[in-house]
């Protein structure tokens, strides 16, 4: 049952009870209360049960004093009862300073027992879990709380049997507190008991009461080393402990110390570093057989809503203590401490946020509870502990690790895993960022973050790739360096160094960096067509940037184009010369058709034989056109005349400006129906009929347009003398620069 049930429970019980009389007390709880091992109180407790009277808020009270107990003196008692028929709680207050009563018989209780003095012990026997609101208790009880329990507003009790008292700790636990943890062993609120599940039905609650009675009857005979047993030692609210565990850079407050039946000791509370950061913390470590803390297998947890890596490193320095070999809970940190100190300020740009909400913790304030264990996002492991590092390799403690949703340079990352151990400080994370890359505008960039700091290096790097470019953000103690080298596809670079400051937002910085062009010809492997594209990029997209100018790029393009053209013509002229001097069946057929390889070596229309090869009609084959049109043939260094005759025509290739077989057939459906599968017949139609009819043989030349465009030709040949117009075109028109385009 939840602790907050008490107020509602009191009201419901009060309404159900007869105003002047309590429900009968469960016999097992009643007998167990009489067996609490304090000398001389058994009879008095029995009488108190008979004397219970209403005390308000559904609570019944009786009080008495046991006089002159040998060795103790007078013992004032207060007995409280609340409940209905089966949900009952009995609270006995012994308003006296005593030796620690032997109400439990286990290792943890014995560890604190010898020499421990208890003041105003409170014993609860209950079948419910409840809280006592002190403001609703009688004045006698309120005085006990004020005098011995630091005036706290509530006391919490578990179901079963529990005790609370003001205690000055003695025995072995005193040594652990004072020599091990650096805490004075006086003035604690001590709480102890076994955490038991709250029964849900009447039979279960009766069984719990019987079990409590059985434990009390056999407390001297049976050792109860139950894992649920706890002992907590609470300092006064607001009390601080300087240098806990010998860590001079830390202060502990709101601290609760504990010991379990496995003889594991620890504390929880708030810890503050001298330089400011405050964390909710817990610490636990086993005791060795001699009863001293074993600082090889400890766990130290810290919880914060957000933490920077600067805070993280300062926390690591704060774990310095002479109580462990090497002077720090993190082994070998001294080997790279100087390197870490040099970069603590840049590390402030790495912020980790706890994915679980963490509020403030304050002892005794139910609105500021201690967080659950899964909320502790920083964990220090002892030397006997091990875990996997960020590369998946097993590493041995001691190790300080943390994880959380990360922000770096103002940008959100995925969860970052940070480890600080014998290999130094290492962290990794990745994220997609939206950053401006000069003239490319904002780009989604996959960025990976790496921190690697040890004796030999101080790497703090964000690296990304986008559209074939890299972007590197490097941090050093004073500067943020931004580098995005030029590529052939985007030949501009971004290179900037900015004074470091913790609130730096790289997106804002990148917005102000336009980048500068570089000379693409100086980039590795930027050659040929890729170089031309790069120069065109500078002349267009990059025209507004500094550095290598658009004018220089255009001049270089013109120079390259001129050089390329000259080289092309040199090779072409060599091929033409070779073709001009070649004598074979193809070259003879070309000559018989009255065609010739023109341009540099002269030639032109020649006399045709009676039955020429129509494939070499000058309207069908032009050596220059065929050479320029097919890079594959140039690369193969074929004889272009022979290739056209043997292969090119049958493949449907085009060999002149004036005629394209596929275009001709597609343009004229009547011809396609007749000659779609007979190129030879289609060619015959073009040479012997189509030209004279003024048909159009290609998308780039129309004889009708040629005549229509030039009135002097119409006057000389007439408006429809297409044969004469073709002769003029071949003999004079194209050399005169006239146009036959449609």
Can you walk through the features of this model?
- Keywords: Signal.
- The longest helix has about 30 residues.
- The chain starts with a helix and ends in a 9-residue tail after the last helix.
- The strands form three sheets. It has a 27-stranded mixed β-sheet that branches.
- The chain has 22 helices and 31 strands.
- With about 750 residues, it is of the alpha+beta class.
- It has four domains: about 230 residues, no CATH class; about 180 residues, no CATH class; about 110 residues, no CATH class; about 90 residues, no CATH class.
Summarize the structure.
The protein is an alpha+beta fold and 742 residues long. Helix content is 30%, strand content 28%.
Shape assignment: elongated
Structural domain tally: 4
| Count of DSSP H/I helices | 22
Strand content: 25-35%
**Structural class label:** alpha+beta
DSSP summary, beta strand count: 31
**Gyration radius, in Å:** 49 Å
Compute the average pLDDT: 88
**Distance between termini?**
96 Å
């Amino acid at each position: 049952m939840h602790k907050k049930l008490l107020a509602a429970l009191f009201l419901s019980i009060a309404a159900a009870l007869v105003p002047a009389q309590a429900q009968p007390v469960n016999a097992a709880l009643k007998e167990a209360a009489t067996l609490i091992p304090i000398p001389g109180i058994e009879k008095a407790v029995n009488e108190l049960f008979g004397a219970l009277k209403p005390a308000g808020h559904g609570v019944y009270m009786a009080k008495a004093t046991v006089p002159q107990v040998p060795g103790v003196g007078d013992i004032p008692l207060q007995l409280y009862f609340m409940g209905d028929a089966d949900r009952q709680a009995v609270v006995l207050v012994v308003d006296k300073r005593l030796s620690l009563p032997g109400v439990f018989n286990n290792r943890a209780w014995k560890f604190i027992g010898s020499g421990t003095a208890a003041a105003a012990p409170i014993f609860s026997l209950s079948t419910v879990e409840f809280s006592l609101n002190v403001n609703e208790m009688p004045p006698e009880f309120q005085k006990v709380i004020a005098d011995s329990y630091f005036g706290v507003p509530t006391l919490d009790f578990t179901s079963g049997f529990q005790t609370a008292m003001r205690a000055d700790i003695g025995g072995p636990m005193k040594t652990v507190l004072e020599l091990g943890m650096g805490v004075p062993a006086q003035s604690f609120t001590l709480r102890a008991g076994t955490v038991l599940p709250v029964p849900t039905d009447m039979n279960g609650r009766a069984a719990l009461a019987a079990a409590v009675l059985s434990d009390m009857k056999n407390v001297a005979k049976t050792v109860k080393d139950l894992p649920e047993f706890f002992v907590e030692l609470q300092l006064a609210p607001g009390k601080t402990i300087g240098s806990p565990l010998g860590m001079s850079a830390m202060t502990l407050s709101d601290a609760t110390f504990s010991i379990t039946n496995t003889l594991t000791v620890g504390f929880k509370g708030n810890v503050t570093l001298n330089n400011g950061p405050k964390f909710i913390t817990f610490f636990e470590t086993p005791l060795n057989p001699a009863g001293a803390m074993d600082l090889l297998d400890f766990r130290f947890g810290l919880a914060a809503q957000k933490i920077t890596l600067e805070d993280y490193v300062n926390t690591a320095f704060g774990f310095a203590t002479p109580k462990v070999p090497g002077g720090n809970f993190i082994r070998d940190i001294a080997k790279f401490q100087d390197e870490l100190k040099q970069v603590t300020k840049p590390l402030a740009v790495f912020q980790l946020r706890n994915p679980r909400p963490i509020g403030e913790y304050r002892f005794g304030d139910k609105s500021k509870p201690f967080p659950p264990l899964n909320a502790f996002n920083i964990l220090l492991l002892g030397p006997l502990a091990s875990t996997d590092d960020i590369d998946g390799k097993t590493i041995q403690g001691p190790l300080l690790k943390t994880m959380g949703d990360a922000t770096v340079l103002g940008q959100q990352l995925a969860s970052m895993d940070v480890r600080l151990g014998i290999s130094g400080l290492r962290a990794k994370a990745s994220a997609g960022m939206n950053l401006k890359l000069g003239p490319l505008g904002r780009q989604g960039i996959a960025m990976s973050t790496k921190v690697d700091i040890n004796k030999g290096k101080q790497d703090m790097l964000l690296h990304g790739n986008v559209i074939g470019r890299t972007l590197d953000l490097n941090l050093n103690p004073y500067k943020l360096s931004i580098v995005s080298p030029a590529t052939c596809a985007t030949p501009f670079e971004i290179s900037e160094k900015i004074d470091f400051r913790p609130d730096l937002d790289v997106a804002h910085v990148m917005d102000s960096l336009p980048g500068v062009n570089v000379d693409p010809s100086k980039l590795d492997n930027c050659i040929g067509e890729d170089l031309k594209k790069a120069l065109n990029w500078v002349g267009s997209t990059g025209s507004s940037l500094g550095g290598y100018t658009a004018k220089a790029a255009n001049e270089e393009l013109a120079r390259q184009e001129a050089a390329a053209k000259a080289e092309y013509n040199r090779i072409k002229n060599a091929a033409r010369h070779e073709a001009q001097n070649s004598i074979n069946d193809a070259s003879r057929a070309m000559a018989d058709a009255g065609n010739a390889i023109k341009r540099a070596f002269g030639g032109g229309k020649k006399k045709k034989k009676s039955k020429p090869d129509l494939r070499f009609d000058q309207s069908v084959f032009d050596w220059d056109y065929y050479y320029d049109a097919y890079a594959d043939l140039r690369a193969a260094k074929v004889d272009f005349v022979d290739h056209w005759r043997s292969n090119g025509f049958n493949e449907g290739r085009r060999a002149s400006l004036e005629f394209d077989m596929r275009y001709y057939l597609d343009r004229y459906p009547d011809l396609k129906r007749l000659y779609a599968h007979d190129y030879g017949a289609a060619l015959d139609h073009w040479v012997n009929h189509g030209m004279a009819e003024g048909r159009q043989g290609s998308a780039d030349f129309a004889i009708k347009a040629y005549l229509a465009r030039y009135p002097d030709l119409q006057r000389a040949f007439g408006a429809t003398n297409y044969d004469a117009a073709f002769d003029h075109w071949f003999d004079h028109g194209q050399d005169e620069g006239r146009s036959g385009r449609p």
